[in-house]
């Protein structure tokens, strides 16, 4: 041990360890080498994470509100099956909650390890959290894609799809569509600038994401467009024969309500698509992440507003049900 003489006495050298800085800090083994920001004094860091916590909080509040209102309507209907016009926003906000929770877990560590080591999460946790964040977002995409296709076939082609008890077939399809493509790029996840997601230069993951979003958004828009065209024609027919309201009249009104939520889906994925496009070109400025944050939180906020517009504040619904051997046919009266 080194020592020095001071006044006839030996004193141990107790020079304090310097405070870790980005100049002298070495990340532990297996940690990403990303340096996302210049410590807690970085204004950009505070701007981005202020947007995260504000918009994510609003999205969670809106999602919880829709879940509560849907449960109360289900309860007032003696726990019988609700129409898709109520089930779709309910399923959507559940997925929104998963998205927000996954991304909050993804970003909460930025205030801990990242302030010291300048990385979102350590490996392999970062890869797992990044994959889960992308997976939950993919669930949202495939949920609306599946429901849009099913609604199009039901309304425009008169082809009915039996979702099964508690819509379990719908969930199986959505989970499978969201999971299988991501498994093909299992090594494509890691640390980004602000959180864990896809690794830089993970071209396969980026191409799968871009192709999936483009194809499914286009198909959803096409299905949405065809449903709207049919409903416009149907409304004209109703004016000509107001006394001949049949079951199909009510079912088409259900589809109109569902189509509104699909429109919200498009508005949600527009900023996400912009982020993916500019991020692929290497643009990592703060505004691109703010656009992504708005896209991630848009659905929960917009769904709650749309739910209030469509359903008001009453827990009761005008609903009758009948069933056959293959499907439960639900009817709901929607105000013009």
TrEMBL record:
Intracellular or extracellular location(s): Membrane
GO cellular component terms listed in the entry, alphabetical order: plasma membrane
Recorded topology in the membrane: Multi-pass membrane protein
GO MF entry, a single one: G protein-coupled receptor activity
Principal subcellular localization: membrane
Region (Disordered): 1-23
Coiled coil: none
Domain G-protein coupled receptors family 1 profile residue range list: 62-307
UniProtKB keywords: Membrane, Transmembrane, Transmembrane helix
Annotated TM spans: 43-68, 88-108, 128-149, 170-190, 210-232, 261-280, 286-309
Protein's name according to its UniProt entry: 10196_t:CDS:1
């Amino acid at each position: 041990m080194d020592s020095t003489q001071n006044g006839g006495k030996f004193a141990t050298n107790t020079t304090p360890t310097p405070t870790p800085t980005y100049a002298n800090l070495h990340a532990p083994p297996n940690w990403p080498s990303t340096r996302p920001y210049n410590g807690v004094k970085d204004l950009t860091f505070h701007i981005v994470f202020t947007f995260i916590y504000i918009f994510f909080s609003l999205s969670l509040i809106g999602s919880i509100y829709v879940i509560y209102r849907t449960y109360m309507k289900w309860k007032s209907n003696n726990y019988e099956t609700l129409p898709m016009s109520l089930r779709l926003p309910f399923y959507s906000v559940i997925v929104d909650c998963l998205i927000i929770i996954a991304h909050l877990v993804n970003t909460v560590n930025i205030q801990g390890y990242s302030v010291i080591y300048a990385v979102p999460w350590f490996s392999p946790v970062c890869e797992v959290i990044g994959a889960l964040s992308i997976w939950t977002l993919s669930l949202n995409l495939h949920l609306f894609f599946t429901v849009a296709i099913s609604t199009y076939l039901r309304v425009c082609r008169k082809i009915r799809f039996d979702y099964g008890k508690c819509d379990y077939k719908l969930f199986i399809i959505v989970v499978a569509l969201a999971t299988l493509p991501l498994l093909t790029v299992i090594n494509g996840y890691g640390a980004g600038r602000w959180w864990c997601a896809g690794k830089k230069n993970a071209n396969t993951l980026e191409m799968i994401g871009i192709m999936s979003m483009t194809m499914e958004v286009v198909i959803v828009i096409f299905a949405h467009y065809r449903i709207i065209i049919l409903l416009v024609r149907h409304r004209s027919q109703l004016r000509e024969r107001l006394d001949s309201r049949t079951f199909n009249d009510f079912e088409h009104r259900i589809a109109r309500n569902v189509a509104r939520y699909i429109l919200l889906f498009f508005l949600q994925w527009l900023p996400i698509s912009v982020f993916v496009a500019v991020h692929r070109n290497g643009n990592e400025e703060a505004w691109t992440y703010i656009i992504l944050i708005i896209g991630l939180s848009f659905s929960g906020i917009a769904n709650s507003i749309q739910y209030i517009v469509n359903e008001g504040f009453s827990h009761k619904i005008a609903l009758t049900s009948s069933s056959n051997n293959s499907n439960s046919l639900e009817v709901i009266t929607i105000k013009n």
